[in-house]
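Service request form, structural biology core

Requester: graduate student, group of Dr. S.
Request type: structure prediction, single chain
Budget code: on file
Notes: please return the result as structure tokens.

Sequence provided:
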Amino acid sequence: MTVQSTPGPWRVSPLEVGGFKIHPANNPDFKICRIENSITYLMAFDEAAEPDAHLIAAAPEMLAALELADEAIIHLDGELSCQATLRAIRAAVAKATGKSRETPS
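Core staff response, request fulfilled:
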């Protein structure tokens, strides 16, 4: 059986001591990861720790792929079937670049 990562969506919230924590949107007390002074600590001490680490490590490549997909979809003839996909891509890119409009939990 394949172990899954911690279910999303995930949120980024500031830590009281400085830095940030990544946590499930529905559980701000559970830290998946904390980042302080450019040092990252993976906080999951269960079987999801390794899948979570792989997901976090893949984020730069996923962001680049989404940005390429965004550009490709723009060049399609504005097919309505692509609009929902384009909105999802742009929301993910905004979240990955810290420009989303969501309020931190």
